[in-house]
Amino acid sequence: MAFQTSVSLPNCDFNYSLHPNVKKFTLRDNTFAETKVGNYELSRLLEAVPNSGNGFLLKIIVNKDLTGFKINITDKSGLRLVNIFKSEDHHIIQQKFYFLMDSLVERQIFEKTPQ
């Protein structure tokens, strides 16, 4: 998946785009790790039951130029994409995703717009 300026996950209520004021130090302060090629990556396990180890892996990667990003939600192994917004069975995981993304919006890493 290529880097995009705006990402809309299937069935998600919001579109996300990079905030124009995003800075590299802001990414590092918010637990984005710098990869070997210079991109910034945030990985979180979205779990219905905290510390259970069962959930879906959220991975956000911002390119080194801060001009594009990608968001993937996969199974725990990271191999298959998962749509957590498809069914209400994942309501708790959806709320955790929105909470995390809202915190990144507050810190001016992303902007969100309703779909």
Protein model, in words:
This is Cysteine desulfurase. It comes from Streptococcus sinensis. The chain is built from two helices and seven strands. The chain is of the alpha+beta class. It has one domain: Lp2179-like (Lp2179-like fold, 2-Layer Sandwich), CATH 3.30.1820. The strands form two sheets. A four-stranded antiparallel beta sheet has the order 3-4-5-6. β4 and β5 form a beta hairpin.
Q: Give the helices and strands as they follow along the chain.
A: EEHEEEEHE
Outline, from the CA principal axes? globular
What would CATH call the homologous superfamily? Lp2179-like
Strand order in the largest sheet: 3-4-5-6
State the major sheet: 4 strands, antiparallel
Please state the CA-atom Rg, rounded to the nearest Å.
Answer: 14 Å
Proportion of β residues? 25-35%
Helical percent range? 10-25%
Summed up:
With 115 residues, this protein is an alpha+beta fold.
How do the strands and helices of this protein lay out in sequence?
Elements: E1 6-7, E2 14-18, H1 24-29, E3 33-34, E4 40-47, E5 55-62, E6 69-74, H2 91-106, E7 110-114
Antiparallel strand pairs: 1-2, 2-7, 3-4, 4-5, 5-6
